[in-house]
Design brief:
heterodimer; A: mainly alpha; Rossmann fold; 4 domains; four-stranded parallel β-sheet; disordered C terminus; B: 11 strands
Chain lengths: ~675, ~260
């Protein structure tokens, strides 16, 4: 017996013409639906996203076919991915049928859906349909029964779920009816290769052949029109993500993580800075809204959202889209909410997890730029004061700039202005320079360098704030002013290598200053110390301790430095108990995005929330790698009532206490 | 309508002050400079008035000093002043308030300013005399320590801060001079377009010799840091005992318990 089936069984080849006409109509509606969205994308400013085509294509293929970003959140990700793969197989199956029935067989006389290949084809499609049904059921239960917090269900979701269920079920019924008439009991060896179709087909064995044929014909057409409806509905519902999210992988930002486009302050023809209206954003920022699937993964991870502030990265992206499509002339800050904009800590948790490769953070910075540069706005008067302090004294505290190097008095450190050979320039940063608690980081780092025989130089009173908080608050002018002054000083000393203890300085000097002409390699002290240990330049005397570790946003998510600090702490004798949110999923301390200068007036305190997470590990010690984090956690431990249960220390302090040489007082 | 705002560049008060070699003022090394706080209120008030009157007033900002005073002049222009005068004087710091006021008066005498605004005093010398002396020399009515201002058609209603938390309200006809106090307004942060525009605004430089005809009336004899006083006492130990000791100290050394 031949293993194949008659394509268009019971329908006749007369269906081909109407089928293709309807198909073309559906595809045309789909194309038209997208075409009419194009002018809205074009409202945005130009942005180059079609360079490096092979790399872009590879990224898209990986993320679409392997569902890499979708699977980062495992349970719903798996449901979606398996559904996607199953649906993809069914689509390929349909294409194969089309290729044979309408091309290879009539034109070339070639039939390939036969024999063993047909058996495989039959089995795979049958199981794919079943898998799609089960996954869809899982997604249905999640959305309508489990109802995860924050998941919004709209008209589209009812339409999509109904359509997909109907398509799969009518498919199985059409298959079952055909098998009842042509395979079950006639070709049992083949019927086994469609197990689900077989089960369904058995339901119809009592029907008369005429009834079977009529029912099959009706269901086939219903199935067909449902599929056509699906195709046509794509651009008009969330189904558009099939194309827009895939395209977004292609259009992703390939630059260094966290890079922000500078503003040409010399160009006197520019009169609008930042994004006041949606037309001041790039076309990609508008397109992002169309790529959003409302999966709310960003919102789940947003520290501002988690503590009752009016920011949801998802809603922000959506509101930009709504504004672009409905009221493109409207003021953007009012549409998304000024408080929402100022609430962002630029922690990047949203962007890191986004399965659609949406770029949230720079949109916020563009809108902040408008508020800061065009309106002179700040999130609060305390921020205005701090920013003025940076202008006058080069630090947000308003302390005398001449005292910036005072912390190093009596230490073996060279002040660059006073001459002398150095191996590294230590860019100290404002907190480690002026803040009493954070000066311990600077002193510890010097003790470590001394023990390793590294000659350290500092700029002393010639160093200024790196400008990071000002930049993230939208004040590009002040950022570039201080950055250029720092760069000129650093270049003047012919420095070969820079090490920072602050991840914010590290990101700014190492990445952002590149745009302004600084080429010197910049390192964070955690990796620098790691290398000293690995290269046997630094010997530690390990002492056991239990701890939990906080990945600062600007070291982990922004710079992918996750393992090295843990290795250093392990070498120091540490036993690590991880918090639930760690590594790339770390929860911000609250101080990023310039929020270090601002009071947290809305909702509960982010730093207290994070300190509670640390306490829940049971470890008595929280180790941080950032002066902002240290400051926030010292405060969070006090205000969150964790005194006596938890202490926070910087990685440098832990290492400095365990130096083999130099023997600090504690040993 | 024409408005003149007089501003002074002063060291940031958090700076490390050292007495200069002459022993009569502070040394200028290691100082961070900024616009005198009270003068910022004056600039802001002038710009607010300009906005209130639909851009009609022309606001001139004036500062006396070495080249570095162009910095606060630029800031005032970025905040919204229209034009600037820089009276070039490398030795401005050694001039007494009478001389400074004379320079300003000499400049303003024939310019028909309707309103002159100054800070109520400078943060470094703190004489609080320049504004009132300018008014005196020009024969203008003057109100000091403004914490509120309403202008309407040539009449200024000024709210003044008095001693002991009292406020006084005075009415003046322009031309007049007003000195500004903390609480009058919140100085704006210059926007970037205005910073760019400020770069193109006119800064008229006038050598001080062209305006100064007066000799100093009050010389500065000496400058010195305040003598270090005894440090505070920290009480430690049992709470009750500390309270007893505190009561004892208050009785012996102060008048609060009598």
């Amino acid at each position: 017996m031949e293993y194949t089936r008659e394509i268009y069984w019971n329908l006749g080849h007369g269906v081909v013409l109407p089928m293709y006409l309807f198909s073309m109509a559906a595809v045309a509606v789909c194309a038209w639906g997208f075409y009419r969205r194009l002018p809205v994308y074009r409202l945005g400013k130009p942005l180059e996203r079609l360079d490096q085509l092979p790399r872009r294509a590879a990224g898209m293929v990986r993320n679409v076919l392997a569902q890499s970003r979708v699977l980062r959140v495992y349970d719903p990700g798996l449901l979606h991915s398996v559904f996607f793969w199953a649906f993809g197989l069914l689509f390929i199956g349909t294409l194969l049928v089309m290729a044979q029935a309408d091309f290879s067989q009539p034109v070339l006389g070639v039939v390939f859906l036969k024999g063993a290949f047909y058996k495989l084809f039959s089995l795979v499609l049958d199981l794919a349909g079943f898998a799609a049904l089960v996954m869809l059921g899982g997604l249905l239960v999640r959305r309508f029964a489990v109802k995860p917090e924050g998941l919004e269900t709209i008209r589209d979701d009812y339409v999509i779920h109904s359509l997909l269920f109907a398509i799969i079920l009518t498919g199985f019924f059409a298959e079952g009816l055909r098998m009842a008439a042509t395979e079950i009991g006639i070709n049992p060896d083949l019927a086994r290769f469609s197990p689900v179709g077989l089960l369904v087909g058995r339901l119809f064995l009592g029907m008369t052949p005429a009834h079977l044929a009529l029912t099959h014909k009706i269901l086939w057409w219903v199935h067909f029109f449902l599929v056509m409806g699906f195709v046509a509905a794509i651009p008009f519902t969330k189904l558009r993500h099939i194309f827009t999210t895939s395209a977004n992988y292609f259009l992703a930002d390939l630059g260094p993580k966290g890079a922000i486009a500078g503003i040409d302050l010399e160009d006197e023809s520019v009169e609008q800075f930042g994004a006041a209206r949606v037309t001041d954003l790039s076309w990609k920022d508008i397109f992002d809204a169309d790529a959003c699937t409302s999966c709310k993964r960003c919102q789940d991870r947003c520290p501002a959202h988690a503590t009752g502030k009016p920011l949801s990265p998802m809603q922000l992206v959506k509101k930009i889209g709504e504004t672009a499509f409905n009221t493109p002339e409207a003021a953007l800050a009012a549409a998304v909410g000024e408080e929402a904009l100022w609430s962002c800590t630029t922690c990047r948790a949203c962007q890191e997890i986004c399965p659609a490769s949406i770029e949230h953070v720079n949109k916020i910075i563009e809108m902040r730029r408008n508020l800061a540069l065009m309106e002179g706005a700040f999130p609060g008067d305390e921020v205005r004061t701090a920013v003025s302090n940076v202008e006058v004294n080069g630090n947000p505290f308003g302390l005398a700039y001449a005292g910036r190097g005072d912390w190093a008095e009596g230490l073996d450190v060279t002040v660059m202005g006073e001459g002398g050979e150095v191996d590294i320039l230590y860019f100290v940063g404002c907190y480690a320079s002026f803040d009493k608690r954070n000066r311990e980081i600077a002193r510890s780092f010097i003790a470590i360098c001394n023990a390793a025989g590294v000659r350290v130089g500092i700029l002393g009173k010639e160093e200024k704030c790196c400008g990071e908080p000002a930049r993230k608050l939208g004040n590009e002018y002040l950022y570039q002013t201080v950055a250029r002054e720092n760069i000129e000083v650093i270049k003047g000393y012919g420095v070969k290598r820079i090490v920072t203890t602050c991840p914010h300085c590290f990101n700014t000097l190492g990445r952002d200053y590149r745009d302004l002409g600084l080429e010197v390699p910049v390192e964070h002290y955690t990796t620098y110390i790691g290398a000293l240990i690995r290269n046997d330049r630094l010997a530690l005397r390990p002492q056991q301790f239990d701890f939990t570790y906080h990945d600062s946003c600007y070291l982990g998510r922004y710079m992918d430095i996750v393992d090295e600090p843990r290795e250093v702490l392990a070498a120091a004798g540490g036993h690590l108990t991880e918090m639930e949110r760690s590594g790339y999923e770390s929860f911000c301390c609250s101080a990023g995005g310039g929020r270090i200068l601002a009071e947290e007036k809305i909702g509960s305190r982010i730093n207290v929330a994070r300190v509670q997470m640390a306490r829940e590990t049971g470890a008595p010690l929280l180790v941080s790698n950032c002066p902002f984090c240290l400051t926030m956690f010292e405060d969070g431990i006090k205000t969150g009532g964790c005194e006596g249960e938890l202490v926070v220390r910087d990685l440098a302090e832990i290492v400095a206490e365990r130096l083999e040489k130099a023997a600090p007082a504690q040993l | 309508m024409k408005i003149l705002v007089c501003i002074k560049q002063v060291p940031d008060m958090e700076s490390r002050f050292k007495v200069n070699a002459g022993g009569n003022w502070y040394d200028e090394s290691d100082l961070a400079w900024r616009m005198n706080e009270y003068d910022e209120y004056a600039v802001e008030q002038a710009v607010q008035l300009k906005e209130q009157l639909g851009d009609a007033p022309e606001v001139t900002v004036l500062s006396i000093g070495p080249d570095r005073v162009v910095e606060p002049i630029k800031k005032a222009l970025a905040m919204g002043c229209d034009r600037a005068v820089h009276v070039q004087d490398a030795a401005a710091a050694s001039k007494d308030p009478w001389q400074i006021a004379s320079i300003i008066a000499a400049y303003a005498r024939d310019k028909d300013f309707d309103l002159l605004l100054t800070g109520m005093q400078s943060q470094d010398r703190g004489s609080a005399q320049v504004g009132v002396t300018v008014a005196e020399q020009l024969g203008l009515p003057c109100a000091t320590t403004l914490v509120g201002l309403a202008y309407d058609n040539g009449t200024v209603i000024a709210k003044r801060e008095l001693e002991g938390g009292l406020k006084g309200v005075v009415k003046l006809k322009t031309p007049a001079l007003l000195t500004c106090q903390l609480g009058l307004n919140t100085p704006r942060y210059p926007t970037l377009p205005n910073i760019m525009k400020a770069k193109k605004k006119e800064v008229l430089a006038i050598p001080v010799a062209e305006l100064l005809t007066e000799q100093e009336l009050t010389g500065t004899a000496g400058a010195y840091p305040p003598p270090k006083k005894g440090c505070g006492t920290v009480l430690e130990g049992d709470l009750g005992a500390m309270a007893d000791r505190l009561i004892g100290i208050l009785k012996e050394k102060t008048a609060v318990m009598r």
